[in-house]
Amino acid sequence: MSSRLAQLFDRAATAYDAERRALIPCFDDFYGAALAALDGLVPGARVLDLGAGTGLYSGLLAAGRPDLDFTLCDISEGMLEAARARFAGLGVAAELVVADYAADMPAGPYDAVISAVSIHHLDRAGKAATLAAAHSRLTPGGIFVNAEQIAGETAAEEAALDRDWEADARALGASAETIAAARGRMAHDRCVTPAENLGLMRAAGFASVRETFREGRFAVFTARASAACG
C-alpha cells in the first residue's frame, strides 16, 4: 500500500467511525454477517485484523468476545491510535502493529484472520499475495473473513452500484464534504467482483470458500485454511 493512502487515512482517523453508518448504508447487516462468521471461535483464540484501522471490526468482536486474543495491523498510525483508545475503553488487551500487511504481515499463527474494507485497496497481485500470506498464518482449519467492498460484474452494474451508494449515503446524512473525502480515498480502490474475490481465495489455498452476505457495494466472504496449513 502507498504512503499516500496512509496519509489519507491518518487524516480521516478522527471522523472515520462517525461516518461509517452513512458510508456503509448496510452497516448493521454487513458487520453482523462478518461477526456471525466468527461464532465458533473458542476462548483464547488468536485473531489477526488486517487493515484494522480504528479497530471497528475487531472492536465489535471484542465487545462480545473479550476472551479472544487480538492483533491489529494497519499502515496508518493515526488509525491505530484510535483503535488503542477503543480497546482501552472496552478493557480488552490488543497488540497493535503499524505495518503494511501486504508486505509485512505479522507471523502468527492465528486461529482467525479478519479484514473489513481494506484488501480492495490492493492491486490483483497484492490481493493474491496477501491472501496467500493470510492462509499461511492460519492454524489448520482456521477461519478467514473478508468483509469487503466489491465491483460490479459489468460497467453498467458498476455505475448503478456507485449511483445507489451515493444516494443511500446522502439519505443517511453524509454531507457533500464527507462524500468528497470518501471519494478521495476511493480513488485508490482496486475493487474486484464477488466471483473474482472467491477465485482469488481459492487460488490462495483456502477451502470452504463462500459469499455469506451481499448488499449493494458490500459483501462478506469466508473460508477455511486447508488442513495442510499451519
From TrEMBL:
Record-level GO BP terms: methylation
Highest taxon in the source lineage: Bacteria
PANTHER family with a match to the protein in the record: TRANS-ACONITATE 2-METHYLTRANSFERASE-RELATED
Keyword line: Methyltransferase, Transferase
Presence of keyword Cell wall biogenesis/degradation: no
Keyword Transferase applies: yes
Protein name, as recorded: Class I SAM-dependent methyltransferase
Coiled coil residues, start to end: none
UniProt-recorded Gene Ontology molecular function terms: methyltransferase activity
Methyltransferase domain ranges (all copies): 47-142
SUPFAM superfamilies: S-adenosyl-L-methionine-dependent methyltransferases
